[in-house]
Write a structure and sequence with these properties.
The complex is a heterodimer. By secondary structure, chain A is mainly β. Chain A is built from no helices and ten strands. Chain A has a single domain, classed as Immunoglobulin-like (Sandwich). The model of chain B has no long low-confidence stretch (mean pLDDT about 95). The chains are: A mainly beta, B mainly beta. Chains A and B meet through β5 of A and β5 and β10 of B.
């Protein structure tokens, strides 16, 4: 079945730096991938999605890259801010949440 | 910006009591969902609901759970006889279509004593 998972449980970056959160998937059947973030005490919040026929998609300060050859996708956050501190999830079309990557932004 | 709203934000109940968690999905959405998140653990899917019936449910969603859309705006999750292990955050979500992005509410923290 579909399996999508993040590489690192935690990531710490300095405020103002760019963040890259990596994710791998094992089933090519998913036709799109979605990134969510969850801040402490809040519900998951949609960030950006990408269809499998795309390589790149940009949003506000975020870019998602999809490499279908190696079944890898990444979320890049430009100029990371303290408000970006959260747990980030990459998911296939079926929303199965893993443990996520906890991003900590140091001031 | 439209959002999913959940009430109450925190519900405390005694073991064995019935609880009803309430959600108001985004108004033009047709698919509704419940998830739960036990403290420190993953967000787990419970159930999806479309066209006034359950479209999918997980193993967690046993006979103690039920969902209802009692009117045109509310979507509820009922737990008939709460157990200690039902203590968790419960998130409601909605989407326009079944394969579309789901938008989550802020959650209801259920504490079973």
């Amino acid at each position: 079945g579909e399996s999508v998972g993040l590489h690192l449980p935690t990531l710490s970056v300095q405020e103002g730096d760019n963040s890259i959160i990596n994710c791998a998937y094992s089933n090519s059947a998913s036709d799109y991938f979605i990134w969510y973030k969850q801040e402490s005490g809040k519900g998951p919040q949609f960030i950006i999605d990408i269809r499998s026929n795309m390589d790149k998609r940009q949003g506000q300060r975020v870019t998602v890259l999809l490499n279908k050859t190696v079944k890898h996708l990444s979320l890049q956050i430009a100029a990371t801010q303290p408000g970006d501190s959260a747990v980030y999830f990459c998911l296939g079309g079926k929303l199965i949440f893993g443990q996520g990557t906890e991003l900590s932004v140091k001031p | 910006e439209p959002e999913v709203t959940q009430t109450p934000s925190h519900q405390v109940t005694q073991m064995g009591q019935e609880v009803i968690l309430r959600c108001v999905p985004i108004s033009n959405h047709l698919y509704f969902y419940w998830y739960r998140q036990i403290l420190g653990q993953k967000v787990e899917f419970l159930v999806s609901f479309y066209n006034n019936e359950i479209s999918e449910k997980s193993e967690i969603f046993d006979d103690q759970f039920s969902v209802e859309r009692p009117d045109g705006s509310n979507f509820t999750l009922k737990i008939r006889s709460t157990k200690l292990e039902d203590s968790a955050m419960y998130f409601c979500a909605s989407s326009q279509g079944g394969g579309n992005i789901q938008y989550f509410g802020a959650g209801t923290r259920l504490s079973v004593l």
